[in-house]
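User: I'll paste a sequence; please echo it back and then give the predicted structure.

Assistant: Echoing your sequence first, then the prediction.
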Amino acid sequence: FCTKDSLSRLFARCGPVQSVEICEKPTPGEKKKKHTSKFFNKKTTTGFQVAYVVFRKPAGVQAAKALSQEGPLLISTESHPVKTGISKWIDSYAASVVDPEELRTEVDTYMQDYDKKIEEEEAKAAKEEGVPDEEGWVKVTRRGRKPGLPRTEAANLRVLEKEKQKRARKELLNFYAWQHRETKREHIAQLRKKFEEDKQRIALMRAQRKFRPY
């Protein structure tokens, strides 16, 4: 129930709030800003958490320190009630429905940024390869065995390699299953053979009147 919006609203009485960050535990310093996705890598944290409220002006920090003398801060009020029960479930369900266009836009933006980053790294590596630094050392960059391969083709090769490994694993399992059936069949055949030999030996002993079961 305690969200970034509710914290920003509560501490706005102390001064303009620049940002609110909620973490699982206290951190030693400022966290690097990461790309937050609405659809991927969403992690739900339960239990106690830590919130960092950043004010635009230093006076906001001093005013926030004095809030402890005014009593507790209420998250749910008449003007800003916190939804619970079926209303909260409806909002949670509505938020879980994915907009295809919004998802496609986020994926396309991420892939464009990723391709741009890879191109910059490859250009930087090609520029630095074979060039000695100030101390005369030459940086050797490790490139793939198939440089210049398009990303889509490389991905296809990885998929084909995985399919090949999966097929080989399946053939091996089938061989083990066949071997197990053959071993079981041979064992049954041996038991039948021994049973027939015992029958013949008992019949022979009866014929010779040497059979004494007791």
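The two ends are 85 Å apart (CA to CA). The helical segments are 4-11, 58-65, 85-96, 100-128, 151-207.
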